[in-house]
Amino acid sequence: MNVLKVVMVSKLFPVSHYTLFLGEGFKSLENKVEVTFYRSKPESIVVPVSNVKNVWSQSPLYPFQVFSELMRDRPHVVHVQHEFDMFGGQLSSIVFPLLLLLLKIGNIKRVVTVHQVVPIREIDDLFAETFAFPRKLYFLLKVALVFIYLSIAKLASGIIVHAEYNKHHMIGDYGAGSSKVHVVPIGVAQSKFNRVDGKWSLALNEKRTILFFGYLVKRKGVEFLIEAFSTIAKRYPDWYLVIAGGLLSYSRPYVDELLSIISKNQISERVIFLTTTPFPIDELHELYELSDFVVLPYVYSFSASLAFSFAMQHAKPVVATNIGVFKGEITNNTDGLLCTQRSSYSLEKAMEKLIESPGLRKTLSVNTQMKADSRSWCQVAEQTYHAYTDTLKP
User: Fold this and answer.
1) What separation in angstroms does the CA of 198 have from each of 57, 212, 235, 241?
2) CATH number of the domain located at residue range(s) 4-187+376-392 in this protein
């Protein structure tokens, strides 16, 4: 086989999406892989991408639409990105196993990247509330999630996850065969950014900044960060908090809650709160470049974080909660600081430690850069290619 023909099924928007970066990484493989992208019909795209087909609608019909097009193209491998909002609403999520079943019937090899692996024990009423699902009906959510994960474990030819934590639960909780689960980390772009006289360079001139970036949803634990910063703000008048991210359809009440906490703590002048969807990529990199360190105060960590990937790209120290994927990704006091989940006090102490120690910030930055250098998207593409070829073995 000279060239491996691969179809990637995924949204291609926003521009920070995993699929676009991986597609760029494949260009380094010297014509080993020929990729065609299947994206949703109503989707807009803001960067040029070659070999794109508008195939599926964000409705429960998408398994048949994707399958029909694949039967015409007959690739060696179809690579499907799985996130719960990838194909539309809740019903679209539930019919995802049907897509895999159709591909199996059509004798098409199917690799699924499972971006989030939720341990069964975590799916309770608090989990449901955090993800905007009726708390009293959490058992229905649990049944649906377990069904989806069990189906992926059974029907996928190969599975890609981003951390050993995910692999452990894909095998232990959902019965995936260990030989079919491949750990391929989120890549880190190798582009370097220098400060320019942009919008935020001028606004944050000579200010010390702490950055949170990501979708503003309850699982990110931003309320604990704000409470922690309210104490930091009193002790360190030169430091500012930047909260930058996007909104999802259900996240407006949470954003209103965050704004209320900021107002209650009387720190509005010290918090820069930005909600832009999608967030401009040039402003994103400018904010990372200007920040002194990044805080990821998540209350759930089931997936690799692009916000963490951006922090590595800019060699920024990270404070994160000592849970899930972060627990395996970050070595405390070596390439980041870990703190207690749902604890403003623990967050406060970790931030204070970095504020008080420029030397520690420098050490963490150097070690973060070393990790970033080992995770280029070219290296991720190479590992993904080997996952494809393992899947094709008899």
Assistant:
1) 38, 19, 29, 19
2) 3.40.50.2000
